Amino acid sequence: MTEHPYLHPDELLGHEIAPGSFSYSALDVSLYALGIGAARDGLDRKELQYVFENHKDGMKTLPTFGVMFPSHAMSRGRLPGVRYNPENGLHGEEILELFRPIPTFGKVSCRGRVKGVYDKGSGAVIHIEATTSDDQGELARHETLLFIRGLGGWGGDRGPSGKTNTPPARNPDVVHREAIPENQALIYRLSGDTNPLHIDPDVASAGAFQRPILHGLCTYGFASRAVILHYAGNDSDRFRRMGGRFANPVYPGETLVTEMWQEAENRIVFQCKVAERDVLVLSNAHMELR
Amino acid sequence: MTEHPYLHPDELLGHEIAPGSFSYSALDVSLYALGIGAARDGLDRKELQYVFENHKDGMKTLPTFGVMFPSHAMSRGRLPGVRYNPENGLHGEEILELFRPIPTFGKVSCRGRVKGVYDKGSGAVIHIEATTSDDQGELARHETLLFIRGLGGWGGDRGPSGKTNTPPARNPDVVHREAIPENQALIYRLSGDTNPLHIDPDVASAGAFQRPILHGLCTYGFASRAVILHYAGNDSDRFRRMGGRFANPVYPGETLVTEMWQEAENRIVFQCKVAERDVLVLSNAHMELR
């Protein structure tokens, strides 16, 4: 293993992130649901329970609301042993596991640590694991993989292969198409990710994008709704686990195509493409239901 | 004047509403702007300043954000001298005057009083006047006319005629069409008006509506954007005053047609119709610019 000027894996590995807490209301839950396209047609009673605090069947929290807990509760601050420019840090992969449905309001606490540092050649991967609890006990487990461009080649372990949850060789069992409105990133960002890359045309072009891109976790949320709709009869309480890799950016206004394969009764492998460009945007993804 | 069992104009007239205050952030300003359809096409830099706190030309607050100050700051509570079922209380008219542009965050205080009680035959009108101030002094003046069905015929004054700001006999000078998305009321309500009439199909049908209706003040906001776009070059700082009457409900998904007539350099008379039903929804409306 060679010495790298901007990466010291031994300092990074095992680092415990300062724990913190986050309180949220039913309004936050509704805003998030609208941010990932729920109840788009307004009248669709199937998704009204995600946006209406007094729904007669009870309000429900869309499971992927949980991905925001660690970033809201913990200031990741500066991780020790690594230095990089923000535009070189990409969200590579996100895994969310829920032990029970997320309450529609409450207070959660998170703690996390750096579980792994991998050398992918063209860059480094920092693997962060976190857990979320509330007053009822453990609620969620999170894995976030950050890909740092340019920090590879120091002779470290490549880490686990990303070739999991590869779609089978047959055509998808179910295909769900959904247009993403032009203003989707503007709504999504009000849930807390106000990175200007998703709203400022100048910042986007400085990052070599044609225009502001959709948040990867917004695409993640759209995809989760498609799988829950088709395989869980839109019963979000059946969500157990989801994971996926951010393969390419999505632009608001494009059409998201979610291709799904049922691998077992409660296990679905899926991927998302953008119809207009035939580009894979969320790959090697899966959802487990209960 | 005859005695009315549910209305005692002498108790109501001059009643001072308990003053109160309201704090808001740039996030609230953005959410409101999205709630009245601003930056719908995402890329439209003309309206990005209403939804982006770090816009290079500075963020701006859409003027009609001000209509919410009295309801947020003051609990109107129960007005003395009047009793009615909520479904019989309709928002009749709203006038907003701004003395300067609304800051993009801050704390405001409101006070208000019942300025008039009128007998319209089929019902009563309660005319409420309010003022909003912040640490820079007086910011806004409000007039709200509530129409209470069934509380008329007690021999009171009819009040001022509603036949002001009537469009001239010529065709409109400018016509602006804008489709209202199906989920518009779901976004708008997160700014604080969570009346179930705008989201719950059962409550809507109990009120004899086909489905949940758009908030009147959301229509009001859409109309304000049309006038500001066409007559103020989208410079919201030029807003001085706006008023209009709520003539009929709008359903999300319909197309709002704003017909405008320029009466003087800085005075526009306008009205809004729904294209699909050719029904007048906002009538006798005007805007004054500076």
Structural class of chain A: alpha+beta
Tell me, rounded to a whole number, the average pLDDT of chain A: 94
| Principal-axis shape of chain A | globular
The N- to C-terminal Cα distance of chain A equals: 43 Å
Total strand segments of chain A: 10
Helix and strand pattern of chain A = HEHHHEEEEEHHHEEEE
- Biggest sheet strand line-up of chain A: 1-3-4-5-2-7-10-9-8-6
State the low-pLDDT regions of chain A, or none. Answer: none
Q: What is Rg of chain A? A: 19 Å
Oligomer: homodimer
Helix content, binned percent of chain A: 10-25%
Per DSSP, the total helix count of chain A is: 7
Could you give a short account of the major beta sheet of chain A?
10 strands, antiparallel
Q: Most extensive chain contact?
A: A-B, 35 and 35 residues
Strand content of chain A: 25-35%
Written account of the structure:
- Chain A is α+β, with helices and mostly antiparallel strands and 290 residues long.
- Chain A contains 7 helices and 10 strands.
- A 10-stranded antiparallel beta sheet of chain A has the order 1-3-4-5-2-7-10-9-8-6.
- The longest helix of chain A has 16 residues, at 216-231.
Considering the chains and any ligands shown, give keywords for the structure.
homodimer; 290 residues; alpha+beta; ten-stranded antiparallel β-sheet; globular
Write a brief structural summary:
Chain A is α+β, with helices and mostly antiparallel strands and 290 residues long. The first copy, chain A, contains 7 helices and 10 strands.
